[in-house]
Specification:
about 240 residues; alpha/beta; Rossmann fold; 2 domains; six-stranded parallel beta sheet; two-stranded antiparallel sheet; 10 helices; globular; HAD-like protein; HAD-SF_hydro_IA; magnesium
């Protein structure tokens, strides 16, 4: 394996405990869409999180249109994306917290300057920026190296599409093989895998009864070289990736 020069971090529930907060806001709008389409099902934030973890709101709406066999116009998509983003950013600015143990690890990477570090997320850029700003992580990342599949690309997309990872590598000026991605979800891990980026899986935010299942998903299905439960394990995991 080439020498690792660059670490690409997912944001939601990898750097920042934001998914649960965001999905509370998403549920309200998802239910509004279902009601508009005369579909009786309704979602709680928790149910949405289980079904669509790792997807941005646009990707989630596409999944809903397929699941329930209805259509939305481009104007409707854009309207709901804008509404969701405003609600989520507002809630994150109030409630977001860092993942356990992440702060000292990012601070050390920043101070040591051995690796380039970037954020590569499915979420809208303003949401990612609000999350890392709220938990005081923004100061460690070059603002130009904070990427969003929903905002940074010429055509908005969502993980598991690898486009945002490929774009990030091009912008930073590195090859996928010299990077390592850190991801907590199937969709994010699949995006890294399809971009041919070595992967560290992370299961810290999952409930205890789901951690083992997600370890298996990340390792067996998505090809993670190693899976960590707490950020304290990160330096050792990075060594294992480099040695693979």
């Amino acid at each position: 394996m080439p020498k690792i020069t660059t670490i690409l971090f997912d944001c939601d529930n990898t750097l920042v405990l934001s998914e649960e907060i965001a999905f509370e806001a998403c549920a309200e709008l998802a239910n509004e869409i279902l009601e508009m389409k005369n579909i009786s099902d309704r979602y709680t934030g928790e149910q949405l999180l289980k079904e669509f973890v790792g997807q941005n709101f646009r990707g989630m709406m596409v999944s809903l249109t397929k699941k329930y066999d209805f259509t939305l116009t481009d104007e409707q998509f854009d309207k709901y994306v804008d509404q969701e983003l405003g609600k989520v950013v507002e809630m994150l600015e109030l409630k977001a917290r860092p993942c356990d143990g992440v702060m000292p690890q990012i601070e050390k990477l920043y101070n040591d300057k051995e690796y380039k570090i970037a954020v590569v997320s499915s979420s809208a850029l303003s949401r990612v920026q609000a999350s890392i700003r709220k938990v005081d992580l923004a100061k460690y990342f070059n603002p130009e190296w904070v990427y969003s599949a929903a905002t940074s690309l010429p055509k908005p997309t969502s993980k598991p599409d690898p486009a945002v990872y490929i774009f990030a590598c091009e912008q930073i000026g590195v090859q996928p093989g010299e990077c390592v991605a850190v991801e907590d979800s199937r969709s994010g891990a699949t995006a890294a895998k399809n971009a041919k980026i070595p992967l560290i899986g992370y299961v810290g935010p999952y409930p205890e009864d789901e951690k083992e299942k997600m370890r298996k998903v990340l390792k067996e299905d998505c090809g993670a070289i190693v899976v960590m439960e707490h950020w304290d394990e990160f330096p050792e995991c990075l060594k294992k990736v480099q040695a693979a």
